[in-house]
């Protein structure tokens, strides 16, 4: 539904929560709105009376404590696909619309996952280690053609991963909230209640699910016990999807062949973590979606939504706050803006 420009002509007031690196290319947004840049200590004072919040510092845990009892923003946009840090009661139970940055990270993460699958199959991490030790040790490697991959999480990132792996010759299935057959990207989607059964058939288990109460610790000792000794686990979703102590134990005991982890329960990963020194583990610093230009793309998405907000049009990537992600059939939500403060 089109609402047109606001009647008063007053542009919205937007608060941007900055981190160490400021958002680049904000000139277009600044032409659409009054933009105030704040850091964590100033956030609580900035929120009352503002119209929108841009959570550029998407790792910040400051919002729950800073959230006003009344007069807060009616729209919050986060510069990430995950919104778990926003789903505190004051925001979930209120009328504030939440949007995320779905779509920015899909293809880069899919490429990264394909690279990890190839690294495991061709033992590239061992080759690099041996090169550093100046050791010549011939090995045989594995084929990926015909290998079976299970992607847990059937949203846009999971679908992009499925398409990349399928194109590389793997047989891919999914695990999601709703079971179905004939899916265009996964073929078969297993219900999450049968995740353990699906894991038992996978050579590569890829985690791309959102963090919700139902997915926290989805890979625990029981799940790992169902995996093949030759299987590898790849996590590009959220760290708490995996019970890390259980994973360390399974890797140490040889119950699975390896793991590639781009996300962790606590980040940065502590130097004392045993994961660093395991030869069958690839550790990366939460970088799977961060291809060159990603910051600028995040700002462009926010600016497009800000233009929609300022003119009362439907927003992109509206999150179902009860579910914690954008529903596949969600078209967005119009937010009439008439210059008034809530």
Helix-strand layout with pairing:
Elements: E1 13-17, H1 27-32, E2 34-38, H2 40-46, E3 52-55, H3 63-66, E4 75-78, H4 89-92, E5 97-99, H5 106-121, H6 124-132, E6 148-152, H7 156-167, E7 171-176, E8 180-183, E9 187-191, H8 195-199, E10 204-207, H9 221-226, E11 232-235, H10 244-253, E12 258-261, E13 281-283, H11 294-310
Parallel strand pairs: 1-2, 1-3, 3-4, 4-5, 6-7, 6-10, 7-9, 10-11, 11-12, 12-13
Antiparallel strand pairs: 8-9
Helix pairs in contact: 5-7
EC number: 1.1.1.-
Protein name: D-isomer specific 2-hydroxyacid dehydrogenase
Organism: Actinomadura verrucosospora
Number of distinct helices: 11
Strands of the largest sheet, in order across it? 8-9-7-6-10-11-12-13
- Quaternary state of this entry equals single chain
Indicate how many domains the architecture comprises. Answer: 2
* The CATH C-level class name of the largest domain: Alpha Beta
- Characterize the largest beta sheet: strand count, sense, and whether it forms a barrel: 8 strands, mixed
What is the number of E strands?
A: 13
GO molecular function: NAD binding; oxidoreductase activity
Pfam family, one: 2-Hacid_dh_C
InterPro entries: D-isomer_DH_NAD-bd (IPR006140), NAD(P)-bd_dom_sf (IPR036291)
Protein name: D-isomer specific 2-hydroxyacid dehydrogenase
What does this molecule look like?
- This protein is α/β, with parallel strands linked by helices and 342 residues long.
- The protein has two domains: 13-104 and 292-310, 3-Layer(aba) Sandwich (Rossmann fold), CATH 3.40.50; 106-283, NAD(P)-binding Rossmann-like Domain (Rossmann fold), CATH 3.40.50.
- Helices cover 28% and strands 16% of the residues.
- It is built from eleven helices and 13 strands.
- The strands form two sheets. Strands 8-9-7-6-10-11-12-13 form an eight-stranded mixed beta sheet. The chain has a five-stranded parallel beta sheet with strand order 2-1-3-4-5.
- Strand 1 (13-17), helix 1 (27-32) and strand 2 form a beta-alpha-beta unit.
- Helix 5 crosses helix 7.
- The longest helix is centred in the last third of the chain and has 17 residues, at 294-310.
- The chain is elongated.
- It starts with 12 loop residues before the first strand and ends in a 32-residue tail after the last helix.
- Residues 114-288 form the D-isomer specific 2-hydroxyacid dehydrogenase NAD-binding domain.
- It holds the Pfam family 2-Hacid_dh_C.
- Its EC number is 1.1.1.-.
- This is D-isomer specific 2-hydroxyacid dehydrogenase.
- InterPro entries: D-isomer_DH_NAD-bd, NAD(P)-bd_dom_sf.
């Amino acid at each position: 539904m089109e609402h047109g420009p606001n009647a008063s002509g007053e542009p919205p007031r937007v608060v941007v929560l900055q981190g160490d690196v400021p958002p680049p290319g904000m000139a277009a947004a600044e032409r659409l709105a009054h933009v105030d840049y704040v850091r964590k200590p100033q956030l609580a004072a900035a929120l009352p009376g503002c119209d929108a919040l841009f959570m550029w510092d998407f790792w910040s845990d400051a919002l729950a404590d800073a959230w006003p009892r009344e007069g807060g923003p009616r729209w919050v946009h986060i510069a990430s696909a995950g919104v778990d840090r926003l789903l505190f009661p004051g925001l979930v139970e209120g009328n504030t619309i939440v949007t995320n940055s779905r779509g920015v990270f899909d293809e880069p993460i899919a490429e990264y996952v394909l690279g990890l699958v190839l690294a495991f199959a061709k033992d590239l991490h061992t080759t690099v280690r041996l090169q550093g030790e100046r050791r010549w040790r011939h090995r045989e490697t594995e084929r990926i053609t015909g290998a079976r991959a299970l992607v847990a999480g059937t949203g846009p990132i999971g679908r992009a991963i499925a398409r990349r792996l399928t194109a590389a010759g793997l047989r891919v299935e999914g695990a999601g909230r709703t079971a179905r057959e004939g899916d265009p990207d996964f073929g078969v989607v297993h219900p999450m209640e049968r995740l353990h059964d699906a894991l038992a058939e996978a050579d590569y288990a890829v985690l791309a699910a959102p963090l919700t109460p139902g997915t926290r610790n989805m890979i625990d000792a029981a799940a790992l016990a169902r995996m093949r000794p030759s299987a590898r686990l790849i996590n590009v979703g959220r760290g708490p999807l995996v019970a890390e102590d259980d994973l360390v134990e399974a890797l140490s005991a040889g119950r699975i062949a390896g793991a590639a982890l781009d996300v962790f329960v606590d980040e940065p990963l502590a130097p004392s973590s045993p994961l660093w020194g395991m030869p069958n583990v690839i550790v990366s610093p939460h970088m799977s979606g961060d291809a060159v230009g990603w910051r600028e793309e995040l700002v462009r998405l926010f600016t497009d939504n800000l233009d929609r907000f300022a003119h009362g049009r439907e927003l992109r990537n509206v999150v179902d706050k009860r579910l914690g992600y954008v529903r596949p059939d969600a078209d967005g939500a119009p937010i009439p803006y008439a210059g008034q403060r809530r």
